[in-house]
Write a structure and sequence with these properties.
Blueprint: H1 2-37, E1 50-66, E2 77-83, E3 85-97, E4 103-107, E5 110-122, E6 125-146, E7 153-166, H2 171-174, E8 184-197, E9 202-212, H3 223-226, E10 228-242
Antiparallel strand pairs: 1-3, 1-10, 2-5, 3-4, 3-5, 4-6, 5-6, 6-7, 7-8, 8-9, 9-10
Length: 243
């Protein structure tokens, strides 16, 4: 009798515990689903203007096209190549919606820091590596095309032009024996990313590719620049945008 009653009580307690566990699991699942259904920053796209800041980590190199002087008239240069080097960008975001859903104009003024390495290899002698360090104030003007918003995420593509102006560090231009670059850079830039709408701000990781359009070669008439007809900047950047 006692044994039967004990098993009955154990069964009831087990059933109660299982019921509580099921209800708790259902409640937690429902709470998580409710959170997923909650739209953060619901009226974000209705604002006439958005501000923010961005941090960029980039890898960059020079695309070098040799001149007619290269490997001619007794010149011993046999190869010129630029290495990929890391760089950084920090700037601001000014975002102007064109409509309520799909298109925005973005202006991202900021400063980029570069260190380019160009390696010259010679016949019968050791190679020489020129370092070109520079900082540019940059002003990208971009068109952003967004997908439909899915809860708190949306994908986007971005593209436009960027104007860069060198700030400071003219030592290499003043040194007639060094490789130097001009003070102005124009780039075609494009990329993609996705917006994450968080409770208090929007976070957007983005990858952008940039191709230099103008010739950065500075003609200071030495063995480094005489071998080069054209220098243009190319880079890939990971941006972290906070708006």
């Amino acid at each position: 009798m006692y044994s039967t009653n004990f098993r009955h009580q154990l069964y009831l307690q087990s059933a109660k515990a299982l019921l509580i566990l099921c209800l708790s699991t259902w409640g937690l699942t429902d709470s998580l689903l409710a959170q997923k259904r909650t739209w953060n920053l619901r009226d974000y796209e209705l604002k006439p203007l958005h501000y923010g800041f961005q941090i960029g980590l980039q890898t960059t190199n020079f695309r070098v096209r040799t001149s007619e002087f290269f490997n001619a008239n007794g010149d011993s240069t046999i190869a010129i190549a630029s290495k990929n080097t890391p760089g950084a960008f920090i700037g601001f975001i000014v975002d102007l919606p064109i409509d309520e859903e799909f298109f925005n104009i973005r202006i991202n003024p900021g400063v980029s820091f570069y260190e380019h390495k160009v390696r010259y290899e010679y016949l019968g002698t050791e190679a020489v590596e020129e370092n070109v360090e520079s900082a540019f104030f940059e002003l990208p003007i971009l068109l952003k095309y967004k997908s439909l918003r899915r809860a708190n995420t949306r994908m986007y593509m971005i593209g436009g032009l960027s104007l860069g102006i060198k700030v400071g560090n003219n030592k290499q231009k003043l040194d007639p024996t060094r490789l130097a670059t001009d003070d102005t850079n124009v780039e075609l830039t494009y990329g993609a990313g996705f917006d994450l709408y968080l409770p208090y701000f929007k976070f957007s990781p983005e990858v952008r590719i940039s191709h230099g359009l103008n010739n950065l070669r500075y003609r200071n008439n030495n063995s480094f620049t005489n071998n080069v007809e054209r220098i243009s900047m190319h880079r890939v950047t990971l941006f972290l945008n906070f708006e």
